[in-house]
Amino acid sequence: MKRVIYTGRFALLLTGLSFPLLGFGHSAMFPDGFKFDDSNEGEQPQLLLDQATTRCVDGSASGYPCKNIDLHSFLAKENMGGGTANLNDIWGYTDPVTGAEIAIVGRTNGTSFVDITDPVNPVFLGFLPSHDNGSDSWRDIKTYNDHAFIVADGSGNKTHGLQVFDLSTLRHLPSPGQTLKETAHLGGFGNAHNIAINEDTGYAYIVGSNQCSGGLYMVNISNPVKPRYAGCFSADGYTHDTQCVIYKGQDARYFGREICVGYNEDTITIVDVTSKSNPKQLSRTPYQGAQYTHQGWFLNDSHNILIMNDELDEKRNGINTTSYIYDVSVLDNPIEIGRYVGPTAAIDHNLYTHNNYVFETNYRAGLRILSAQDITAGKLSEVAYFDTIPGSNSAQFSGTWSNYIYFASGNIIMSDIGYGLFVVKPDWDAISNPDPTVEYCEASSNNASDEWVGMVRIADFKNSSGAKRYSDFTTKVVNLAKGKAKVQLKPAFSGIKYNEYWKIWIDLNKDGDFEDSGEEVFSSNYAKSSTVNGNLSIPSSASLGKTRLRVVMRYNAVPESCGSFNYGEVEDYTVNITAGMTVANNIRGSVTSDKNEQTINVIEQLQQQYFATLGVPNKR
Question: Which residues are in the GEVED domain (predicted)?
Answer without folding.
Answer: 501-576
